[in-house]
């Protein structure tokens, strides 16, 4: 099918947040999250991590973690033991320059991995065999209008959505479950330096982070309904919760609450912006450059604590 190009004028589609009282309403979240499990340490062994980045949780509770410094994906079982490794590095790739960034897995087992250095999206089978390369300049790659892919997620339609920070687009890819070839794609334009993207399989809502710049554009989180329209903007108004400094990891739960890992000069933290009410910090201690967030089927939150070279799991509701 032909690709569909959608232009979204953010000034026309954004509904500004409504006024709320100082009380946190409509959310069952605790005042702060508490850690229930931590695993991994710095190294290159089978169970080690080196600068873990993006993380994805499947509906069965497996974790797929981008082990950036080791140029691989670590896959854990329900007990969070490493059971599989996907090592994309080949003859044309050097682990020193790969810079793998984010990962998502659909219900058919296809694994999508973004690579900042190659400016491409790599698609693997469930067994770790490279099937397709979208964007980039590597031999065999397919031009899918990707210049600088960063975040990737999977939607309730089982499509992969890729955020391109350079083009200012979100690209939805519907792929063949066996070959990974493109069946259909949709490109949505009009975003300002989109970085991470997350989807809720229950509600169909998505969240995308936009990076600020030196010209005065401030970072924010946009919440999108399934038709791609922006329905909320988070992180820019102190009256509605913490103002974002540098958003990284991102996820959205079935209640519409948005979780984001935010870096500041003096703090690295995880914030929550409930679907109604005022946002607040969930985790403020013992994090060093958290890069990825995901939600397990039981509702627990997974954080890839990059500079501490480990994965942490929290209960926040």
SSE-based structural type: mainly beta
Spatial strand sequence of the major β-sheet: 1-14-13-12-11
Q: What pattern of helices and strands is seen along the backbone?
A: EHEEEEEEEEEEEEEEEEEEEEEEEE
Low-confidence stretches: 1-28
**Considering DSSP H and I runs of 4 or more, what fraction of the residues is helical?**
under 10%
How far is the N terminus from the C terminus? 42 Å
Radius of gyration: 18 Å
Task: Give the number of helices.
Answer: 1
Mean pLDDT: 87
Report the biggest beta sheet as strand number plus sense, adding barrel if it closes: 5 strands, mixed
The strand count comes to: 25
Shape: globular
Beta fraction of the residues?
A: 35-45%
InterPro entries: 6-blade_b-propeller_TolB-like (IPR011042), NHL_repeat (IPR001258), TRIM-NHL_E3_ligases (IPR050952)
NHL repeats: 36-79, 244-276, 286-317
Keywords: Repeat
Organism: Goodea atripinnis
């Amino acid at each position: 099918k032909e690709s569909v190009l959608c232009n979204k004028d953010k000034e026309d589609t954004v509904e500004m947040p409504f006024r709320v009282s100082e009380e946190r309403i409509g959310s069952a979240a605790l005042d702060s999250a508490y850690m229930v499990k931590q695993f991994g340490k710095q190294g290159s062994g089978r169970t080690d991590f080196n600068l873990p980045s993006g993380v994805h949780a499947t509906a069965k509770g497996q974790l797929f973690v981008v082990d950036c410094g080791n140029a691989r994906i670590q896959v854990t079982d329900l007990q969070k033991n490493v059971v599989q490794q996907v090592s994309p590095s080949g003859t044309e790739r050097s682990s020193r320059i790969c810079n793998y960034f984010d990962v998502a897995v659909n219900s058919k087992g296809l694994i999508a991995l973004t690579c900042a250095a190659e400016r491409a999206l790599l698609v693997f089978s469930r067994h770790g065999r490279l099937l397709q390369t979208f964007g980039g300049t590597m031999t065999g790659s397919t031009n899918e209008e990707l210049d600088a892919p960063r975040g990737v997620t999977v939607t309730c339609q089982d499509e992969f959505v890729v955020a391109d920070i350079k083009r200012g687009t979100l690209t939805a890819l519907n792929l063949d479950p066996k070959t990974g070839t493109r069946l259909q794609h949709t490109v949505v334009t009009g975003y300002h330096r989109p970085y991470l993207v997350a989807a809720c399989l229950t509600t169909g809502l998505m969240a995308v982070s936009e990076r600020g710049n030196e010209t005065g554009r401030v970072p924010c989180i946009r919440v999108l309904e399934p038709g791609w329209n922006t329905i909320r903007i988070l992180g820019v108004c102190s009256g509605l919760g913490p103002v974002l400094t540098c958003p990284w990891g991102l996820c959205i739960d079935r209640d519409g609450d948005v979780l984001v890992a935010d870096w500041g000069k003096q703090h690295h933290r995880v914030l929550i912006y409930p679907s109604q009410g005022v946002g607040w910090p969930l985790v403020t201690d013992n994090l060093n450059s958290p890069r990825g967030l995901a939600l397990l089927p039981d509702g627990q939150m997974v954080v890839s604590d990059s500079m501490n070279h480990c994965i942490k799991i929290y209960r926040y509701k």
